[in-house]
Amino acid sequence: MKEEMGGEGMGEWRALVAAEREVARCRAEVNQLPSRVELLAMAMSGSSAWDRSTALTFLRLFPEDVPKVLELLVDLSLSIGWAQPASEAIRVARREIDHSQLAEMVLGRLSGGDSEDYLRLSDMLARVEEWETLGVVIQKAIESNDLEIQEVGRDFNESYGGMLP
């Protein structure tokens, strides 16, 4: 193995390792900042994809701040490009999250929501294993007057009905 590591690309590999070490050092420094929650909120609310991506990665690695920015994460879970990383940040911190607060946020966003909102929020709830709230959302969807929303409810009930309380 040692001979294999000495060949072509070794300089690039060493540079990547050095960059990863520097990123880890910077993350540890940011984690010590008293203003980190405000910085994370600003990064997730801003227009820079790099800022948002970095904030979501940070929250997955340091999930203790997720409850403080939960509303922003729920909002990002409605965005096709950010739904998966936002859901992952919530999932990692699910033991620290106030589940009634999460349910309230989700149901508030569904008031007047369309089928895409139901789909994305149901998907987020399934990813974070928030079964009780998912059951409420499914029931609300099935009872909707909108046929597309009803279909989302039926699909999620078929896929996750066995997990619901």
Brief summary of the model shown:
With about 160 residues, this protein is an all-alpha fold.
Query: How would the global form be characterised?
Result: elongated
Order of helices and strands: HHHHHHHHH
Q: State which percent range the strand residues make up.
A: under 5%
Largest sheet features = none
Q: What is the residue-mean pLDDT, rounded to a whole number?
A: 94
Structural class: mainly alpha
In percent, how helical is the residue content? 55-70%
Radius of gyration: 20 Å
Head-to-tail CA distance between termini: 52 Å
Number of separate strands: 0
Poorly predicted runs are: none
Total helical elements:
9
